[in-house]
Write a structure and sequence with these properties.
The protein has 24 helices and no strands. It is mostly helical. Helix 6 packs parallel to helix 8 and helix 8 runs antiparallel to helix 9.
């Protein structure tokens, strides 16, 4: 019988007051939540939990007890919003946690305020609001004393997660190295998270490193393996699954595709058993990247399309933007350009709106790489590059910098004087210029085919025919066609 089982048995004590019972339920649920056992956490909360969309049952409880219930239910809501996607889950979680934080602050309970700030930072991170997450987590760390080792360790880990998501990997590695003494004194679960996070940072730093520091990859593999061992010791299945997925991603970057699939199979088994659709979607996204690298585009399309729907419901825009970028790249390789172009543009907008600037910048680079040679107008190509350059202005990712430079050369070549190289085709060149003017006319006309046709000096029927037959990738730029109604007045027979 483990500690959680002992605590559950303690709930049978008839002498517990309502507040004592509620606090005990919160402690048990917290243990389950932090080991990824969300269904068990929900059951442990008992009558306090009413669901993601319903305020917890706190009637008759003291103010500080109410705050504990709100904090725990808010934390669980955020987790469930990821593993079993629910629209707006992160916003609902933030509301509950913020209310709890205000109560703790009013009562001078600094440790509980710090715990609430930790959970609030996680919600901001999930929503892609990295600046807000960073500020809240830094506030939480400052509140803690030297004896609050485990709580401080959790917040430091989460701080590095935020920095990695924001593309500031050198900053994340510095935090991890400086905090090693803190983690040496923590249990297996936190040690596993430290190893796993260090592996992720090393992998990001090693990918495309200008200095050729391939030793980063070897170190990252060792760290991931250590993380999995620590997680398995304490049966943290979700963390083990995430570590397997992250290791697979690294192996994919090293072109060790067969090994990557093996670790993805392990991660998929874990998340399928846990019915964790959110993490399953991330595993599918990684597998789609592997298939893309293997040039198995049909398989990649099937896998990534299944992941998109789950991530759209999860309320995690940064992850959704990354998946849309993969989807758009696959569509481009399958020559489904009319689907790929709007998918790329959507990925950029979603990531930028969420504050995930690196994801937005990488999506813009992928748009240039896949479509810049022919399917973007010169003005859109230039604007997209400038946007990517601005979005990636603070990145420390050498691979992103290398890609940015390559795209700069591609843009310069496209904007230079037209060259008739070995692959030149007059019909293709004419078609490209035709597409440029049609795109501009549709943009000026707000998508109206009738007005665009007048602007181009051709008939509506001619422009509609061109869009349907020769320029299908421009169809999303037009407003939906309206079927003309037949007259109800019958013409007289002769």
């Amino acid at each position: 019988m483990n500690l959680a089982d002992n605590k559950l048995k303690a709930l049978d004590n008839p002498n517990l007051t309502a507040d004592e019972r509620a606090l005990l339920r919160c402690r048990i649920a917290s243990d389950f939540t932090h080991t990824g056992q969300y269904e068990a956490a929900r059951e442990a909360l008992g009558e306090l939990w009413r669901g993601i969309d319903i305020r917890p049952n706190v009637e008759g409880l003291a103010e500080t007890t109410t705050a504990e219930v709100l904090l725990q239910c808010g934390s669980l809501t955020g987790c469930l919003g990821t593993s079993a996607p629910s629209i707006g889950a992160q916003d609902k979680a933030k509301d509950l946690i913020s209310e709890a934080l205000r109560v703790f602050e009013a009562h001078g309970l600094q440790k509980r305020v710090a715990e609430a700030e930790y959970e609030l930072g996680v919600c901001y991170w999930r929503a892609g609001a990295f600046d807000e997450a960073r500020i809240v987590l830094q506030q939480g760390v400052r509140r803690l004393g030297e004896s609050d080792v485990e709580q401080k360790a959790k917040m430091l880990i989460r701080s590095t997660v935020v920095e990695v998501s924001a593309g500031r990997c050198n900053d994340a590695l510095k935090i991890l190295d400086e905090a090693q003494a803190v983690f040496d004194a923590t249990p297996d679960a936190l040690k596993g998270r430290w190893h796993g996070q260090k592996a992720l940072v090393l992998r990001r730093l090693g990918t495309g490193t200008i200095e050729g520091r391939t030793d980063f990859f070897d170190r990252a593999i060792i760290e991931y393996t250590a993380a999995i061992v620590h997680f398995e010791r304490v049966k943290h299945e979700r963390y083990s699954g995430n570590a397997e997925n992250n290791l697979a991603f690294l192996l994919y970057k090293l072109a060790r595709y067969a090994e990557a699939h093996q670790h993805l199979d392990s991660a998929q088994k874990i998340f399928t058993r846990l019915a964790d659709t959110g993490n399953l979607a991330q595993v599918r996204e990684t597998r789609a990247r592997v298939y893309l690298a293997e040039e198995k585009y049909r398989k990649a399309a099937d896998v990534i399309n299944g992941a998109i729907g789950a991530l759209e419901k999860a309320g995690e825009p940064a992850l959704l933007a990354d998946a849309l970028t993969v989807q758009a790249t696959v569509q481009a390789r399958l020559s489904h350009h009319y689907l790929s172009l709007p998918a790329f543009r959507r990925a950029i907008e979603i990531a930028e709106d969420a504050g995930a600037l690196e994801s937005a910048g990488l999506a813009a680079l992928s748009l240039i790489e896949e479509h810049g040679a022919a399917r973007l107008s010169e003005s859109e190509l230039y604007e997209t590059y400038c946007r990517a350059d601005d979005l990636l202005g603070r990145t420390q990712d050498a691979e992103a910098i290398t890609r940015l430079r390559a795209c700069a050369r591609a843009v310069a070549q496209r904007l230079a004087v037209e060259q008739m190289d070995a692959g030149f085709s007059l019909p293709d060149a004419v078609r490209a210029y035709e597409a440029r003017f049609i795109r501009r006319a549709l943009k000026d006309a707000g998508g109206s085919v009738s007005r665009a046709a007048r602007r181009l000096g051709i008939s509506y029927q001619r422009l509609a025919s061109l869009l349907e037959a020769r320029h299908m990738d421009l169809l999303p730029a037009r407003t939906p066609a309206i079927k003309r109604r037949r007259s109800i007045i019958k013409k007289p027979k002769n």
